[in-house]
Amino acid sequence: MGAGQSTPAPPPTAANMGADLKTSGDAAKPKPCCVCKDEKAARDECMLFSKTDNAQQECADLVTKYKTCMAGYGFKI
């Protein structure tokens, strides 16, 4: 190879496929869609299938549980 030419990048392997991904502290934080699934499902079911006129009041405890769970992972709702 002459001056000013660079060597080609090696082919992707299992060891280097994620090398270009961001490796900051965010890597340890899960995505919001992947946590508190049970709490979210219970909250959604309560809100969708409520037979009262005020589903927000009826499901307030489930909403609180979901918010608490999400806060435990660092998410603010």
Automatic annotation (TrEMBL):
Protein location: Mitochondrion intermembrane space
For the keyword Heme, the answer is: no
Question: Keywords assigned by UniProt?
Answer: Chaperone, Copper, Disulfide bond, Metal-binding, Mitochondrion
Q: Name one GO cellular component term.
A: mitochondrial intermembrane space
Provide one Gene Ontology biological process annotation.
mitochondrial respiratory chain complex IV assembly
KW Chaperone (keyword) present = yes
In this chain, the stretch annotated as Disordered covers 1-30
Looking at the Swiss-Prot or TrEMBL record, what is one Pfam family this protein matches?
COX17
Q: Which InterPro entries match?
A: Cys_alpha_HP_mot_SF, Cyt_c_oxidase_Cu-chaperone
Q: Which GO terms describe its molecular function?
A: copper chaperone activity; copper ion binding
Q: Which residues form a coiled coil?
A: none
Q: Which residues bind Cu cation?
A: 33-34
Q: Please indicate which superkingdom the organism of origin belongs to.
A: Eukaryota
Q: Which PANTHER family match?
A: CYTOCHROME C OXIDASE COPPER CHAPERONE
Similarity comment text for this entry? Belongs to the COX17 family.
Q: What is this protein called?
A: Cytochrome C oxidase copper chaperone-domain-containing protein
Q: Where does this protein come from, organism-wise? A: Clohesyomyces aquaticus
Its lineage opens with: Eukaryota, Fungi, Dikarya, Ascomycota, Pezizomycotina
